[in-house]
Amino acid sequence: MANTKSAKKVMRSAERRRLRNRIHVGRARSEVKKARKAIETGDMAVAAEAISSASRWLDHAASKGSIHKNNAARRKSRLMKQLAKLQAQGK
């Protein structure tokens, strides 16, 4: 437990940031999960739309500082790679 006044303030502000970040991170994670499920179904149109939505929410979370921009880029890249693989199988 914090002892000094400044340490107590840091704890309060850290908790506020944690709650704010949870909103962005949670939404991005949900959208990525939806995109992965859409890819598993094999429907190209649905998968492309889901990946677009996931990409949007990952960028939003990164812009707010909830996740690192490279983390968002890596996740988007992996989703795009899975979509490309699905497109290659469909041809």
Strand tally is 0
SSE pattern: HHH
Largest sheet: none
Give the CA-CA distance, first to last residue.
60 Å
Report the C-alpha radius of gyration, rounded.
18 Å
Percent of residues in helices? over 70%
- Unreliable residue stretches: none
What this model shows, in words?
This protein is mostly helical and 91 residues long. The chain has a single domain, classed as Ribosomal protein S20 (Methane Monooxygenase Hydroxylase, Chain G, domain 1, Up-down Bundle), CATH 1.20.58. It contains three helices and no strands. It has helices at 5-41, 44-63, 69-90. It starts with a helix and ends with a helix. 21% of the residues are buried.
Which key features would you list for this structure?
single chain; about 90 residues; mainly alpha; Methane Monooxygenase Hydroxylase, Chain G, domain 1; 3 helices; about 0% strand
Fold topology:
Elements lengths: L4 H37 L2 H20 L5 H22 L1
Outline of the structure:
This protein is mainly α and 91 residues long.
